[in-house]
């Protein structure tokens, strides 16, 4: 805890490494002088502890993951020795006595520096090294340890994916020197991974923003329904998918009756409320897979792929009836509609379908309005 506070204080005061080391050396010297005055004996590992303290405080907190080490050795005494070498200088040491245990520790603690003994009882340290390299790639720094000093062992270790090969008994000075290189390598890899994650996050945000902008462009500002541009984008796709699956497509055009009178008598604000109410009703009355569009003004269109053609007719009649029952800060109104189906002989394209629906809408208006007109031979309810 005290070390953490010192690190925080150093960062707040913006003391650089050289200045901090000068301060630390003065403190260390005064400590020795005080020990002499009171005839105190410093701990035998005082120098080692001091080195660890310095490395811990000087290292950036964000790099501590690079100091996480896993020692894999079936000999407990060897693991204990390496722990005594590493922990005093700031390393977070984990242990494993077998390959299976090592994999569990890696899954749980994600160490990046791995010390692997060549002989792991019934396991093969060289084979484990190869497995780790294959599974984790360059994210891990692998060090093979062996009591055999033949050149062939070092060559084999490197061929099987090790970054370093050290012989036992291991010199503490050599081990720490090698691991300083490992820490720099792992820290660089962590920085690259963090940068990569930041790039992925930024890319995802950009995609979301583009999607939101695209959706805004495709939406009618007043009603929230799709607009004509959305029709031109999505309607052909619905038509093509339905045609490929041999599914009929229905198109219904709706128009508010005498809408100009509403605007003229009550104002455009009231007319907008009527349009918004109709749009809400259409959204509630159709399926999520249906395309509901405000083409412009008081004209709306529904495009749906379905085998239930009578059901579409009934849905449209129900919408027309529900419109007449709408209440709000606007006068009551009705709609006229025209329907068309892709199964009609005259319909060969999406444009034909829309044109036929528009023709039937015109016929509904000429026939007295507040009515839905379908192609000849199709059910009206």
Overview of the molecule:
There is one protein chain. The chain is an alpha/beta fold and 381 residues long. 55% of the residues lie in helices and 15% in strands. It has 13 helices and twelve strands. A five-stranded parallel beta sheet has the order 2-1-3-6-7, with helices on both faces. The protein has a five-stranded mixed beta sheet with strand order 9-10-8-11-12. Strands 4-5 form a two-stranded antiparallel sheet. Strand 11 (335-341), helix 13 (350-366) and strand 12 form a beta-alpha-beta unit. 28% of the residues are buried. The model has no long low-confidence stretch (mean pLDDT 84).
Q: Strand order, main sheet: write it out.
A: 2-1-3-6-7
Distance separating the two termini = 78 Å
- Radius of gyration computed on alpha carbons: 38 Å
SSE ordering: HHHEHEHEEEHEHEHHEHHEEHEHE
Oligomer: single chain
Largest sheet: 5 strands, parallel
